[in-house]
Amino acid sequence: MFTGIITDIGTISKLEQRGDLRATIQTHYKTSDIDLGASIACSGVCLTVIEKGSDWFTVDISGETLRCTNAGAWVLSTPLNLERALKVGDELGGHIVSGHVDGVGKVIAIEPAGDSHMVQFSAPAELAPYIAPKGSVTLNGVSLTVNAVVDVSEGVHFTINIIPHTWQHTSFGTTAVGDAINIEIDVLARYLSRMKAVLG
Predict the structure, then answer these.
(1) Which of 6, 22, 107, 143 could form an S-S bond across to 81 if both were Cys, CB 3.0 to 4.6 Å?
(2) Is 12 within a domain?
């Protein structure tokens, strides 16, 4: 379980195609504190540490994960938003995040807004019911608040104001129009939708 508060920006230093895709990620984390088998959210994708060194760790990325996330577009030097799993007693600064990506959207516009950036995203139709103004959404692992939502024929467009701190301390600082973005909807929205479907 995670909160969507990014604590490091890692970079991919090695990719190796085996039965699954194996990625080595450079990090500023103190890796001596990371156990093999630990979960780390990498741009919103919960992955398991299988090897580590003084300033890196390695994960395997399955074909299913490649199909359902933007990990298939990761290349050498791709920056990744990193967050270690919650421990009991940790501050819940963002919102509850599972690290299970619900769909992939795209950046469709970036505009300066004072010192911040207004960024517009697209999301597929199946996620449209779960994205609401003032609601929470996780994009590439970052907990964010939705400003505005517009339903379109192919799904939904939504806008988020990204403050300077978030822009500077996540991979959004290098994001460009057209980039694919991992989307995880709010877990509460998911359960409310299920309850409505079951209870009518």
Answers:
(1) 6
(2) yes
